[in-house]
Every structure is written in C-alpha cells, then in structure tokens.
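Protocol step 4 of 6: structure prediction from sequence.
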Amino acid sequence: MEPTAFDRARCLIADGAPPEEAAASVVAAMTPDEVLWCLDGDAPTWGGLMFIGQGGYHLMPFDAAVVPRLGVRGLAFSDGPRGAVVGNATAFPVSMARGAAWDPELEERVGEAIGRELAAVGANLTGAVCVNLLRHPAWGRAQETYGEDPTHVGELGAALTRGLQRHVIACVKHFAVNSMENARFSVDVEVDEVALHEVYLPHFRRIIDEGAGAVMSAYNAVNGSWCGENHALLTEVLRDEWGFEGVVISDWIFGLRDAATSVTAGLDVEMPYRMIRAQHLPAAIERGEVTWDDARRSATRVVATLLRFDDVLSRAVADRGVLGSEAHRSLAREVAARSVVVLRNEAIDGVPLLPVAPGNRVFVAGELAAQVNLGDRGSSDVWDLDARPVIEGLAEVFEIVDDAADADLAVVVVGTTFADEGEFIGSTDPSLMQLFPGADDPELAARYGAQIAAIPDTERPARLGDGSDAFGQGGDRTSLRLRDDEIALIRSVAEANPRTVVVVQSGSAVLCSEWVGAVPGLVMGWYGGCRAGSGLADVLSGAVNPSARLPFTVPVDEADLPFFDRDATAIRYDEWHGWWHAERLGRAPLFPFGYGLSYTTFATVAATASVEASAVVVRGVVRNTGAVAGADVMQVYVNREVDGRVPVLGGFARVEVGAGAETEFTVRVPLDRLAVRDADAHAWRSPSGSYRLTVGRHAGDPDGVELVVDL
C-alpha cells in the first residue's frame, strides 16, 4: 500500500523535522474542502444533537478532522474528569474530592487509569483536565475542579495531565475565567490584567508547561470578547506569551458566535458539529474576512498535534475489559478514602469519636446513604454499572443496626445531588437559536447514522431511570446550606445518640455553622465515586488514617464570600476570593483552606528556607507525635506585602511519617510564582525584597513556622 501523506510526515519527523513542518506538508496536500473539514467536528448538527439526546455522549467519542484520504486519524473526543465518559467506565471520586487528597502522585495514577479506559473506547482526546478556580461555592460545576487556589489546582491538573497523556491527548478547560454555570452562555467577566495573570491563569500555564496537548475555550466572555473569539487569550497569552503549540478547540455547540473571528483569534476547531463554521466560513473567506492561510494554520496545528502524540496514539490499547476493572475499582476505593476530610472529631468520655473498630454497631440515616450519588449528570457523568451507595460500603465493615440509641456510632449522610448543582444546559438567550443551521447534509447524515449503528453496546445504568432528567439539571446552587429537614435529622439523631458523625456529600463548601456544634463528628465525604462507602468505612474504622485537607475555605456565613449572581450578564472579578479573601476580611473561617484532622498528631521540628537557582527551597522535618502512622500535608504560604499583592500558596508536600518517627520534607517554590504582573508593560516583574514565609498545615495556621528570605 502506498504511504499516505501522514505516513510521509512521520518520516519527516524521524529525519528531524519539527512537527509543524511535517504537518504543513500534510495540509499542503489537502483540498480546500479538506482544510475546512479540519476546522470543526465531523458530525452533522441535527443528527449529532439527536444522538446526544439519546445518550450518545456516553456511547462513542466525537470525531473532528478525520481525513482518511491522507491518513489523518483526526481527534476523537471523550470527556471526564471523574472517569471515561464513553462506555461503562470506572467512576472515580470527583476532582474536588481528589483535590482534597493534596497528592499529585495519586492524581497521576488516576489520570493513567482514566486514560487507559479512554483509549480502550477509541478516544484520543479528553476534556478531563477541568481547572477553573472555585471563586464561590455556589458554582454548579465546582465538583469538576480541584479547589480555590491556583497553585494547588495547577499541581493537581499537571499530575492528571501526566497520567492521561500516557494514553491520550489531554485537553485543559475551560479557558478562561469560567466559574459560573447558569450564565455561562451570556456573562461577560471583567477582570484586570493583574488579577487575570496572578490569580485566574497561573494554573492553566502550569498545565501547559507540563505539556498538555490541547486547550478548550470557555463559553463566557472576558473583557468584552467571547472566549472562543478572544484574540488576547487565545493568541497573545496562550501562544505568544506561553508558547503553546497544541490545538485549541471550542466548548460544545455555543462555543463561538462568529466563524471568521474565531479563526483569526486562534480557535482551531469548532466542536463537536459542522455548525457555525460550515455555514459561514467559506463565504467569509471569499469576502476576505479570513484568509486561506488562517484556515491552513489551524489545520496545521491539528495535524501537528496528532504527529506530536503519534507514538502515544499508535500504541496497542487495552480492550474494553479494562473498563471498571478490579484494579481501577481498587484505586477508586483508595482515592475515596484518601479524599475524606475529617473536620471535627471531638472526644466523648475522653476518647475521640473516631475511629470506631470494625464490627461495631453503626446506625445510618439520611436518604443519600442509600443512593448512588456520583454528582453531576451532565458532560462529566460516568455510566458505571457497579457504583454502590454509601450504606453498602459501611455494611462491609460494620454491623448496621436500626436503632440509633443502640449503636456504637450514628452516621448521618446529608448534602447535595445532581439536582442541586451541576451542568446547566438551558439558556434564555434567543440569539443562540439563530446559530443553528438548516437541515443536515443527507450524505453526511447517512454516514453518521452508519457510524452510530456500528458502535459497541453500552448499558445505561438503572439509577438514571428513563433519562428525562439525566442531563444538565443542576446549575449553580441556590443555597449553600443543608435543607431544613436534613438539619432536623442531624439534631434528632444526635439527641438519640451523642456519638454521631455527619457525612457531607457535595462538590464544594456546605455552610454548617448553625448545626455543627450539635455533633462531635463531621467529615467531608464528597461525591466519592463507585466505592465511596468503602472508602468512607476505611476512614471511620481506622483502616486508613485520614490525611485529606480542605481544597477550599468553609466560611461561617455567606457574607464572608465574594459577590455572586448566577444570572449576571456582566460581573467583575478581582484578586480577592478564597483563603486570602478570608484573611483580608479578618474573619476567621469555620474551617480554613488546607485544614483536616488525622488520628495522630504532628509537629514541625525544623524548617529552613534558601534561594537556589530559580526557586525558594523550604526544607524541614515533621515528627509524628502520636501512636499511629499517618500522613501530614506541609503547606508553604508566602506573604507578598512587599509587592502590594495577595499572598500565595508557594507549594506543598504530602509527608508519610511512622508512629513516633521523623521524616524530612522539601517544598520548592518557583520564583516565577512570586513574580508580579506589570499591567503597563504587559509583562512580569521578578520578585525583589524580603518575603515572609509560613510553613504550616492550613492557611492562617497560628502554629506555623515563620521564615524570611531575601530576593
């Protein structure tokens, strides 16, 4: 068989040509129609919409830029981030839960497992790296990111990217400043250069520097320009300043409004259908609004990305038997346990409430205890066929009893579900409906129908019912508190049995100041994945010593949070949210960022800081002063008052320490993490002066070790 243009491009790379040069040779062999074909998804609009309405998002990847004549495999997209969205995959704990583990090595293992399952279902590109900052806990898709701090989010997103890209191309999303759900199709976020570059973009850059091959633009506008048409973001920042060489794709369906502007701004592929560009781009080229060189540039980026990842994408992949494998379910249980944050563990008769030995009698209350509560049912939903409710996992370890008063421990499971928070599909903007084309091309529709007919069977989980409420119901939360009946249940159970622990399932903070004093135990259980109950039981029983820490601040009440309007059409973001917002207000949070309890105790017995090459390096020793082995999370906070800037989390390290033992730790704080954005020069200014560092266990830790470095 004669080699294809893509085969010849492989040879060019083998001879030392850069991917862009080799890709240009492929694009040069394309017809004009093939060039345009590379600039959007391959599916017809109406057929694709109908397919998604029938569960198609979970049945096969969505293709773009497939050019068989030239051997271009194209992009095959499937979503994340709690697991492979196509097929009956493993449902891992949501990203926010994994953020609570504060463990990049664990997150890399999760990424590799998800990547392996994605490759098995035919995907080669995934939107699993969702890293928008949690600016406010009402954000409906908070569960899909890792937390409120750019350093913490960036390190975990980079780890997930490393794991994924052993098998598929990682796409980081949603670029940028996307932390509202209901208004995402209409809101314009105003943000100045300092806040943008020092708060809302550093985690994206960290993941780009890690080698992420793709970026997905956001729906919202930033400073007056839709993100899918935002030249400042997609070209000036992403490519010119950061040096990104990969492909930029749009968010789905309404990710752009103007075909020509999106191309010239730097958006390469409209996803997932032949929708806006297919209607308008040919005429825009004829009118001179966009050139063929512009179109070929985007096509070249697509092909270059495929060439850059060709070794990964050409490897043999596991068959579908890897989906939901025992190894991956075991990992899901490990992650669930490592994500459980113990927030309150008061003593009763001089003994802490937790842990409770296996085999003890446990009373379980709360309707969520008997539900499979995986979180959002939008684009991140995973059709896991063996996801189990919490009570089943608890029953593996404890004797479940029906009388609260007769139990050794009472567990009350409360929180939110997909109906309270998650992806919001609806829109009240009539102009969006005008973006849709007329009828699908009959030939394209027929090919697409044949492709659908050939896909492997995927079973719809029984927990989803008939699917009438299964996609995009939640949106932004209308309340940050528990329902009145849940609070009443907590009080009732605690009155019957003072040995009560409350387990909160949610994707972000739940305010609990009005009832937390009524119970001695409180843990954050999240949407804990297919083995949430087993992981929780491991922690409650002491089989796993809890080491998770909050990835966000839990305030006392709503007044301690920044402004949030889920229906806003315009909103201004500044530097102030999260743990540094709490410090600025001078109001102690109920539970600070980075906080979490262990069944042992730790002390920092030594810490030093030195400037080495391009980083401040903090070294120290942690002593386990308790009777059981455990893991501590050392966090380094840097005060930047010398620059008049918000403080930053410089870095962190998870440290395993045996009972009574000592372990050394090292936290490296890159100097560019302390740099200051000069809005006038549109550039960075290197840090200079004396900086105060706090080596502690959470933001604002009064027992933290204070250090000073001169730069």
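Step 5 (inspection) to follow. Residues 677 and 683 are 6 Å apart (CA to CA).
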